[in-house]
Specification:
By secondary structure, this protein is α/β, with parallel strands linked by helices. It is 53% helix and 11% strand. The protein has a 5-stranded parallel beta sheet, with helices on both faces. Keywords: DNA-binding, Phosphoprotein, Transcription, Transcription regulation. This is Response regulator transcription factor.
Length: 227
């Protein structure tokens, strides 16, 4: 499965050129022309990596990144700054703000691709193929889900408050989470990596407005999103 990237830049020509180049390299790229639209896409899509311009009207790249780093869902998501400001002081400020890489315009698109791949590889290596987060908490959630499932027929179903469109793979992951399976088990069932399962679970959290597997399963049962 190709990595999903979010590109935020207010220059149409550059935005279209970078999107086309990255897609030619095999990435899936969503684009936004400003930070507010970028934030909306970020929550909807939960990409693997963000590339954002630094100097944008209304909300600049620094503020956009600050908002990301304050949200637990995006705290460690790789971020690349693109900017016409290449002074050392600006670069230092960018790294202090929490960006992972900093490219001055004009830049070589091959260098951008190399940085993107390097950051994605590092993130994959860091997450490993283990059951990364707090295993005790995860095991407790699995127990709560199984307890909930035993009394699922007493849960009244109502239409979801907002329309939720799930991809076939997201639906498959949700169905398996709702059966009380852990990430490793889901990965084996779907013949994918644990990292991909974690990504899909994060997207399900974003789409349903939930913060834990227990909340996700209850939401899915209450609103008929899983059988």
């Amino acid at each position: 499965m190709s990595a999903q990237l979010l590109l935020v830049d207010d220059e149409p020509g550059l935005r279209e050129a970078v999107q086309a180049y990255l897609e030619d390299e095999g990435f899936s790229v969503q684009v936004a022309s400003n930070a507010n639209d970028g934030w909306d896409l970020l929550q909807q899509q939960h990409p693997d990596l963000v590339i954002t311009d630094l100097m944008m009207p209304q909300v600049d790249g620094f503020e956009f990144l600050k908002r990301m780093r304050e949200d637990p869902r995006f705290k460690v998501m790789p971020v690349i700054f693109l900017t016409a400001r290449g002074m050392t002081g600006d670069r230092i400020q960018g790294y202090q703000a929490g960006c992972d890489a900093y490219l001055s315009k004009p830049f070589d698109p091959d260098e951008l691709v190399a940085i993107v791949r390097n950051l994605l590889d590092r993130r994959a290596a860091a997450s490993g193929d283990g059951e990364a987060p707090d295993l005790a908490s995860l095991a407790r959630e699995i127990g709560e889900i199984k307890s909930m499932l035993s009394g699922r027929h007493s849960i009244a179903q109502t239409p979801p408050p907002i329309k939720i469109d799930l991809t076939p793979r997201e639906q498959s992951v949700l169905d398996l989470v709702a059966k009380g399976l852990m990430n490793k088990e889901i990965a084996r069932n779907l013949d994918t990596s644990v990292r991909n399962v974690e990504k899909y679970v994060s997207r399900l959290f974003s789409k349903t407005g939930t913060n834990s597997r227990t909340e996700l399963v209850r939401y899915a049962l209450e609103h008929g999103l899983t059988e």
